[in-house]
From TrEMBL:
InterPro entries: MATE_fam, MATE_MepA-like, MATE_MepA_subfamily, MdtK-like
Lineage: superkingdom: Bacteria
Name the UniProt record assigns to this protein: Multidrug export protein MepA
GO BP: response to antibiotic
GO molecular function terms noted in the UniProt entry: antiporter activity; xenobiotic transmembrane transporter activity
GO cellular component, one term: plasma membrane
Family: Belongs to the multi antimicrobial extrusion (MATE) (TC 2.A.66.1) family. MepA subfamily.
Length: 459
């Protein structure tokens, strides 16, 4: 199929079929990615020990900070590309692609180098102890050294989805999963490299997938491809990418700050193993969050294209389908967390104390999950249509306006349970706020939809 024809179908084919076509590959890719992330932790927990799980949890804020820059460039550029393709401005879409590639390289190298220079102070600030910092340091030395590979790989995958190549994006992610699952146990057990080996397997896997992506974008027949004259950064393009990417950037930066507070509270009231329990609980919830992110990634090109083409009826339909699907996904996570927490915790460790702490943590942490999916879709929807300020507000509200104050208020009253309880309470409040914001803007979209229908009938 012609590449331009593939993008034109975003405005003509039935929304349900389009969402399935674009979301399923992304969901499969995100599921595979989350499973490999989870399996990586299982290898570390079972092959290195319970304190290694705690050390890995200490790295979460730094990983979130790295992801913040990756999301700002990847999601910002892919959204801009989707809108330009909807407007049939293929030349500008090419320049956005070239600028995004340059930004990924620059930001990926800069972040990795700066973080490596101050690694130990950063890890201690994030809650590392003398017992956990050796594991956290060994892991992040490799991850940060290869940060430019990780960031560029994720950025190119976002562009593949925007360019109507969801299956290729899925294949790239699955390739990293397969390679990592093969390499991680070899490095950990056969070569006795421990947590350092697990990180090395991750970077090598992403490097191989990135090489394949570069080969794909080297094909001159593709609607977006490498060519001269598109890599020099242009102020307007960078400004647009940053403006839209600010929402996921802010969300990941807030996640970094929040995890620092969570780790500090857990360490203070429960010790290093409580931090490990959070690491396990977050890995379990991460699967369902990533599946929902995959759904959102599938929604992005459809919503962006139809918004650019002023097809508001189709825009509302993709939002509806995505919200229903997301609710089913996160409700499934809730059921598993409440009824099978022991089985989840046992995957990661044989340490009885850590298992017991993880069971309670998993149940409380995912208590509000049935409504989390809907909140994620609404936040992503505003991002898809370029409403960066609203998306940023919704991203910040859950973490900064609700969760952070609760992490300060509840632990002195409820001690360890207060840290865990703050999470579902903030999720619930954030979901209510997102629904109110969506209801407010639904009226506006319906008016625009009626105008669009009237203009079409007049023609």
């Amino acid at each position: 199929m012609d590449n331009k024809q593939a993008t034109l179908e975003l405005g003509t084919k039935p929304i349900g079929k389009l969402l399935a076509r674009y979301a399923l590959p992304a969901i499969i890719a995100m599921t595979a990615s989350s499973l490999y992330n989870m399996i990586d932790s299982i290898f570390i927990g079972q092959g290195v020990g319970p304190l290694a799980i705690s050390g890995l949890a200490i790295t979460f804020p730094l990983m979130n900070l790295s992801a913040a820059f990756g999301a700002a460039v990847g999601i910002g550029s892919s959204t801009c590309i989707s809108v330009k393709l909807g407007q049939k401005d293929y030349a500008m879409a090419e320049h956005i692609f070239g600028n995004s590639f340059t930004l990924n390289l620059v930001v990926g190298i800069a972040f990795g180098l700066i973080a490596l220079l101050f690694l130990d102070p950063i890890l201690y600030f994030f809650g590392a102890s003398e017992h956990t910092i050796p594991y956290a340091r060994d892991y992040m030395l490799v991850i940060l050294a290869g940060n430019v590979i990780s960031q560029t790989f994720l950025g190119m995958n976002a562009v593949l989805r925007a360019a109507s190549k969801p299956k290729q994006a899925m294949a790239a992610t699955i390739l990293t999963v397969i390679l990592n699952i093969v390499l991680a146990p070899i490095f950990i057990w056969v070569f006795n490299m421990g947590i350092f080996g697990a990180a090395l397997a991750t970077i090598i896997s992403q490097g191989v997938a990135l090489a394949w992506q570069i080969k794909l974008f080297s094909n001159q027949d593709e609607i977006l491809h490498f060519q001269r004259g598109i890599y020099k950064l242009k102020r307007d393009i960078v400004k647009n990418i940053a403006g839209i990417g600010m929402s996921p950037f802010a969300m990941n930066v807030c996640a970094c700050v929040v995890v620092i507070f969570i780790n500090a509270g857990l360490s203070h009231y429960g010790g290093d193993l409580a931090v490990g329990a959070y690491g396990i609980a977050s890995k379990v919830s991460f699967i369902f969050v990533m599946v929902t992110i995959g759904l959102n990634q599938g929604m992005l090109p459809i919503a962006g294209y139809n918004y650019g083409a002023q097809r508001y009826d189709r825009l509302m339909k993709v939002l509806k389908y995505a919200m229903i699907t997301a609710t089913v996904i996160t409700s499934t996570g809730f059921i598993i967390a409440e009824f099978f927490p022991y089985q989840c915790a046992r995957l990661f460790t044989t340490d009885k104390t850590l298992i017991d702490m993880s069971i309670e943590g998993i149940r409380i942490h995912m208590l509000a999950f049935p409504i989390v999916g809907m909140q994620m879709v609404i936040t992503n929807f505003f991002q898809c249509i370029g409403k960066a300020k609203i998306s940023i507000f919704l991203s910040l509200s859950r973490q900064m306006l609700f969760l952070l104050p609760l992490l300060v208020i509840l632990p002195p009253i409820m001690r360890l349970d207060g840290v865990w309880t703050a999470m579902p309470v903030s999720d619930t409040i954030a979901a209510i706020v997102a629904l109110v914001m969506m209801a407010r803007y639904m009226k506006k979209f319906k008016r625009q939809m009626n105008v669009s229908i009237q203009q079409t009938s007049d023609k």
